[in-house]
Amino acid sequence: MAEVELDLLITHANIATMQGPAGPRRGHEMQDIGLLEDAVVGVQAGHIAYVGSAREAAAAGVTARETVDAGGRLLTPGLVDPHTHLVHAGSREHELAKKLAGVPYLQILAEGGGILSTVRSTRAASEDELLAQAKRSALRMLLCGTTTVEAKSGYGLDRDTELRQLRVAKRLGSELPMDVVSTFLGPHAIPPEYKADPDAFIDLMITLLPEVKSEQLAEFADIFCETGVFTVEQSRRFLQAANHHGLGLKIHADEIEPLGGAELAAELHAVSADHLLQASKDGLRALADAGTVTVLLPGTSWNLRTSEHADARFLIDEVAAPVALATDYNPGSCPTESLQLIMALAANQLRMTPEEILTAATRNAAYAVGRGDVVGSIEVGKQADFCLFEATNPAYLVYHFGINHIHSVWKRGQLVVQRGQLVEPLAAEAYR
Ligand code: IZC
Ligand code: ZN
Fold this sequence. Notes:
Blueprint: E1 5-16, E2 35-44, E3 47-53, H1 54-60, E4 63-69, E5 74-77, E6 79-81, H2 96-100, H3 105-110, H4 115-123, H5 127-143, E7 146-152, H6 159-175, E8 179-184, H7 198-214, E9 220-221, H8 232-244, E10 248-253, H9 261-267, E11 272-275, H10 281-290, E12 293-296, H11 298-303, H12 312-318, E13 323-325, H13 339-350, H14 354-361, H15 363-368, E14 386-389, H16 394-399, E15 406-411, E16 414-418, E17 421-422, H17 426-430
Parallel strand pairs: 1-4, 1-5, 6-7, 7-8, 8-9, 9-10, 10-11, 11-12, 12-13
Antiparallel strand pairs: 1-2, 2-3, 5-14, 14-15, 15-16, 16-17
Bound molecules: 2H-imidazol-4-ylacetic acid and zinc ion (ZN).
């Protein structure tokens, strides 16, 4: 190590390394953030080449071309947002008054609004228009510390628009300093033209799977398993077909009504099961046994003004399931790009500890999108994705809520946010 001059050293950092044996953390392990006080991280060719205490680094003679003094601030892995509907056109603030008047989310959808409203605007948008809107949102995420994001389709509900959304997600990942993990969510709602025959719509979505896979347009498949949307039986048929074509499985499970989506996810060994507000205790236990990552979305339950929330304490304390957190960023049930806001809600509404929250938004979230071996922790060999916070400890991040605590962000060793601002040319793309 002594002879090698690294590209970058970040010194005097309180590093939440999240290091440890492979796999997501469960139960009390989620409390372990692998904190190294007054520590140093070294970067070479976009990857982490050194992590250790200041004393060890000095003894080893670690040097670099560039050194950044973190001034005792908290350094974490880049945040990972494992559930978003990033690519879409338009917005739905016209539905706010209805929501506040108490009209339920599923009723707005049944009346042709909600998801179907976004389907109309997305079908009418060109690939470049979708890319421009998604890019601005993705850059807002990056500004708030998200360096890896999952992005779902599901606002086309037809062949051309679904594939267009997936192509946009792919372009985002190549044009921005972010990893974008793409998910095919063709069965997100029943389009009006298939209202009388949802099974025929599932058949149509299944016919897209070979193309999605062969053109590498998605790594995962997902379905909205919910009353009035898709049944457990339809979900099983679609997800089994997706699995057959080599896609990883995700599911919107037991969000609004208890249908048994959690049990289905466990049966199919899905990579993640998301929402889970209404899941049965047996279903949650089955998920833990299957090793499925449970992705909780407290921004959505807060924004939909539901009286109940996902039972994070049961998942962590009773069944030791791996828990991750995500924004669910979408124009209806959760229009926010800020995973930091979600982290604050996880403390307040799910009663997760700051350490559990950090684990859920980094290491466990990386496993929820199949990237646990490359991102989500600060360990030698992983990508040099870091958040430097204007804070010294994780509790401060969730206690002081509703603001962006980011000082700096690095993606694959490149500085992308500096002193709370996107660097150029990213800033020019985000604000025009
Ligand atoms: O656009 O409302 N729940 N899908 C399932 C969503 C929310 C996204 C939306
Ligand atoms: Zn969703």
